[in-house]
Amino acid sequence: MDLSLIPKIKHANSDNFFLLAGPCAIEGEDMALRIAEKVVKITDDLKIPYVFKGSFKKANRSRIDSFTGIGDEKALKILRKVSETFDVPTVTDIHEVSDAIKAAEYVDVLQIPAFLVRQTDLVVAAAKTGKVVNLKKGQFMSPSAMKHAVQKVKDSGSEKAWITDRGTMFGYQDMIVDFRGIPEMKQYAPVVLDVTHSLQQPNQTSGVTGGRPDMIETIARAGIATGVDGLFIETHFDPANAKSDGANMLILAYLEKLLSNLTKIRNTINNL
C-alpha cells in the first residue's frame, strides 16, 4: 500500500505494519502531547509508520451524561498542535457531513465510525475532502459488505480508502474478530485491525462499556499473523481515569513491549 499518500508519514518503506494510536478522546492539550511524545519515540525506534489518533468529539455514547468532548475547535487545534510538534500525521473520526470539511482542515485521515459506515452522505463528504478515509467495518456487517463502502469512496473520485475491522457483535455484550475477514477485505482496500475496540464489551447494564485489555496482545499477534496492513490501538497513561473507553485501552507503559513483539512477528512473516 502507498503510505506516501499521507503527509508527514515516516518509515513508509520499512515493510512494517503501520499504526494508528492515541487516546480515545482528546481530553486536553497536555495529555495529548504526553501520549504522542511517547508513541512517536517508540515508533521511530521500531521503524513503524505512525499516525496519531484522537477523537475531537464522541457522538456515540451510551448515556447522555457521558463525556463527549472539550469543544470541537479546541480539540481539533490540539490535533494540529500534535502534528506540528512531532511532525506526524493525525486521524480523527467524524459523525456528520459538516464535520468532514471542518476536520479536514486540521487532520490527515478522516475516520468513519463503524455505526455510520453505511451513511452514504458521510462517506462521500469525507472522500471529497481528498483525505484518506478510514472506513470502520460495522459490527453488524460481513467483511464482503465493506466492498460497497470502499466503492462509495472510489465513486466519489478518490482511491484513498482503508478498511478497519473492529470486531463483530457476538451476542449482546461481546465482540469477536473473525480473522477470515482480513484477507477477504484486503481485496478491496488496505486493512487495519482495531485491536482495542475489538475487545469491547458493549451494552453493559451500567451504560458504561466494558472491555478485555488483557487480550490486547493476543488479538494483535493474530492480526499481524493474518497479514493486516496496520493496527489501531487506543492507549492512555491512566486508562482507569480516561474520560472515554478506558475499560479497553492499553496502558501506555505497556506499548513499547507490545510493539516490539509485534515487529518481531512481522519480520518473521516477511522472511517466510
TrEMBL record:
Annotated DAHP synthetase I/KDSA domain residues: 8-267
What UniProt keywords apply to this chain's record, in alphabetical order?
Answer: Cytoplasm, Transferase
Which organism does this record belong to?
Urechidicola croceus
Q: What is its EC number?
A: 2.5.1.55
* Name by which UniProt lists this protein: 3-deoxy-8-phosphooctulonate synthase
**InterPro entries linked to this entry:** Aldolase_TIM, DAHP1/KDSA, KDO8P_synthase
Q: Which Gene3D superfamilies match?
A: Aldolase class I
| Family designation | Belongs to the KdsA family.
Q: Which PANTHER family match?
A: PHOSPHO-2-DEHYDRO-3-DEOXYHEPTONATE ALDOLASE
